[in-house]
Design a protein that fits this description.
By secondary structure, the chain is mainly alpha-helical. It is built from 4 helices and no strands. The chain is elongated and about 55 Å long.
Length: about 140
């Protein structure tokens, strides 16, 4: 049997697959950052940022990002550039919002949580802003 499926991928399928692959890459990057940061800082709270939440949220967010990228790319003139600009602005706003979070009354733990979340947001924002467009334009997807 020959299972060779020759088909031309659609713009939508490439966008969503770019989001899925970017989500997997984001998950790995955030898990590595999480492991290294916790090892260096000794931060132990894991109610919000833990392995299962990172895996679920990263893949889900970036898959949604692939769908949103499709909307920008398909319906907006110079949609890729607009998507990148809007995504970077949203990432910067998220960073600003993280700076105001007080996770713990203990100032050391509060600062450690902010640093952990800042890394997670920066990594996720970078893959959302640049990873999805890059993977979309890659011929390997």
């Amino acid at each position: 049997m020959n299972f060779n499926y020759d088909y031309e991928p659609t713009e939508f399928s490439k966008s969503v697959l770019a989001g899925v692959f970017a989500g997997i890459a984001t998950t790995l990057a955030v898990l590595i950052y999480n492991f290294i940061y916790r090892g260096i800082s000794g931060f132990s709270l894991s109610d919000i940022v833990n392995v299962s939440s990172v895996i679920f949220v990263s893949v889900l967010l970036l898959t949604i990002g692939g769908f949103i990228f499709h909307l920008f790319h398909h319906y907006v003139k110079q949609g890729t550039l607009v998507f990148i600009v809007v995504s970077v602005i949203l990432t910067i706003l998220s960073i600003y919002m993280i700076m105001g979070v007080e996770r713990s009354p203990n100032p050391v733990m509060a600062a450690q949580f902010k640093k952990l979340m800042l890394g997670v947001v920066i990594i996720t924002g970078a893959f959302w802003s640049f990873g999805i467009p890059y993977l979309f334009n890659s011929d390997k997807i």
